[in-house]
Design goal:
The protein is mostly beta strands. The chain contains no helices and four strands.
């Protein structure tokens, strides 16, 4: 939800821990400007809640899959994403 009260669809991931390797986080504002952060390793611990517009993951069987807020996977995201 935005400060003006409007809402947009988002994917929500809830986890106890999230570990990202070779992470690139690109945050954009409505004006298009934003912040890009990269890190070889990022760890989030505790009651982690992440809201995303889209995510691309490699499943344990090696298949690459993309999910978007407007096109979420039926039944939700797999419990193990593998390489995101």
């Amino acid at each position: 939800s935005h400060a003006d009260g409007t809402t947009v669809p988002a994917l929500r991931i809830v986890a106890d821990d999230i570990v990202l390797t070779d992470a690139v986080i690109d945050v954009r504002s409505t004006s298009g400007s934003g912040l890009v952060t990269s890190s070889p390793r990022m760890e989030l611990h505790g009651n982690v809640q992440v809201y995303l517009d889209s995510i691309t993951t490699t499943l344990p069987d090696g298949t690459s899959v993309s999910f978007g807020a407007a096109t979420p996977p039926p039944g939700g995201l797999p419990s193990t994403l593998g390489s995101v």
